[in-house]
């Protein structure tokens, strides 16, 4: 079951899956709206009979200095990034508890929820809240055999990567990524999906309440990057950041 608030987008992805031999259904749904999510749940039960896994992957981000964030902008960010997590989690977890079969809830956070994120204060705060809520729900729902985990991506090759445009800040995209990411490349959607499949599978049956970074090592590197000579350098006040030279 695929849910998306954009007209026809979920249906188009469902059609592509059906063309490959899978059974799929796509619905136009605003996951911040409780009645719409409840309708989507009922459609899921009618079509598939049960709900075993929930993946919360709705989000939106805008680059804005904190001092320019007015109350309306702040609340819109919270509604988009945290409301889109709360509503489906509330509705689906109740169904999982009612059904009594256990289940998995996977929240897509971001490494920006694990570190400082200048110009993305509201977004990062929501993502940090997602990490905290994941831990709490992992404990609360454990009595019902429902596991709750997080994935924290950094730069994955999706349309959102267009933010890092070619030549931005005086360097080429590939050069910047090679110096910023320890594994020296952008992650693929397939690599990220593999981590999601693992956490929702029986291979991870004893894992709950964790946040797994899928970022090529960028969070582990925190503050370190490759110099132009490709040596690891700790960025400090007396040296310009390697990716901005």
Automatic annotation (TrEMBL):
Gene3D superfamilies the record matches: NAD(P)-binding Rossmann-like Domain
Gene Ontology molecular function, alphabetical: oxidoreductase activity
InterPro entries: NAD(P)-bd_dom_sf, Sc_DH/Rdtase_CS, SDR_fam
Keyword Oxidoreductase in annotation: yes
Keywords in alphabetical order: Oxidoreductase
One Pfam family cited in the UniProt record for this chain: adh_short_C2
Coiled coil location: none
Sequence similarity: Belongs to the short-chain dehydrogenases/reductases (SDR) family.
PANTHER family associated with the record: DEHYDROGENASES, SHORT CHAIN (PTHR24321), ESTRADIOL 17-BETA-DEHYDROGENASE 8-RELATED (PTHR24321:SF8)
UniProt name for this protein: NAD(P)-dependent dehydrogenase (Short-subunit alcohol dehydrogenase family)
Lineage: Bacteria, Pseudomonadati, Pseudomonadota, Alphaproteobacteria, Sphingomonadales
